[in-house]
Specification:
Number of helices: 2
Radius of gyration: 15 Å
Strand content: under 5%
Low-confidence stretches: none
Number of strands: 0
Largest sheet: none
């Protein structure tokens, strides 16, 4: 099965991307890229538990 975003979905992603990138950079600045990577890994594990 293949999914595709609607035009509105693409617009929404385009609108939130700059803020998302800024937040990610701020997290890396405050905590370092290794800790951010660890956090992402842990969150992915949490999702996979379901």
């Amino acid at each position: 099965m293949q999914l595709r975003l609607s035009d509105q979905g693409y617009r929404t992603v385009s609108e939130i991307t700059p803020e998302s990138v800024a937040i990610y950079r701020e997290l890396e600045h405050k905590f370092g890229s290794d800790r951010v990577a660890t956090l992402i890994d842990m969150l992915n594990e949490l999702v996979d538990m379901d």
